[in-house]
Specification:
Helix content is about 30%, strand content about 15%. The chain is built from 10 helices and 8 strands. The chain has an 8-stranded mixed β-sheet, sandwiched between helices.
Length: about 350
Amino acid sequence: MIRVGLLLLLSLSVLPGAWAQTSFPAPVEGDVVVKNFRFESNEVLPELRLHYRTVGKLERDAQGKAKNAVLVMHGTGGSGAQFLRADFSERLFRAGGVLDATKYFIVLPDGIGHGKSSKPSDGLRAGFPKYGYRDMVEAQHRLLQELGVNHLRLAMGTSMGGMQTWMWGELYPDFMDALMPLASLPGPISGRNRVWRRVVIDAIRNDPEWQQGNYKQQPPSLRTAEQMLFLMGSNPVIRQQQMPTLQKSDEVLDKYVSDALKTADANDLLYQVSASRDYDPAPGLEKIKVPLLAINSADDLINPPELQILEREIKRVPKGKAIVIPLGPETVGHGTHTIAKVWDQHLAALLKETERR
């Protein structure tokens, strides 16, 4: 069962030995430790561990500027490992793919609080610094510096990573050649998008067994949180096909939650969902200098096209374009962001448009 990064395709793992069977260079995995990282909350973590995976080799031009680096950012609850799934990596990273790893240096970080990077469940629990999206973007920038990446050919991301892509364009407008946010909107977390997050947050915080984050076993509210993630992740057509009866609906939901609870942690999830509180790129959209292509899908329950937010705000981005992919047999709701065959032709066009002459 796929758990979607907040929302579909969220926390997917790679089986041991699977990399040897891929059609692209084997990923290299590692950690960067940032000393005394100061968060926007003014809290300081003596050692912030930033985990990453890279695919391919970094190349520079005659002036020492990185020319082939691509940053790919994951969604809430996910990690860089999710992009090693076949429907993303085998489509994009293979020889001849849009992000052919023999030509590009692809960086797949685990965001703060996610994957193998520093997170509450490492030991600090509710004492972990209250990170937000700006902290996560700053940490990504620090990671790239440590990897020797002083410029990006492309920054892209899915869901939360898509939202951070908008932020990258505003905070570091000269750092990249192109931007491609997927499954995101260039505005604050509000409306129904805020409501489902509040349901998760309140369920955990109001659970007596959460014990202010000092629980000895996962609180029952974690089940409610996982059910909410399942609800928001896919489109109704797929859900109906998967769950045509009451009994089958319960069976599928129970299996999803059971699998998720094997690795989920209430504090980690609470922090992950809460981190979006500082997200709002709307005031600075005119600061984005490079070509930006935003891609959403019409069956995305989290970013529904009827809001018209993307269509309205993209006009403020000097070199911005937006595409909303219609509901179809290959779209899967919010998680369409990781099904590369649905949108890779648009990525190819963006890269061609922004080629250095």
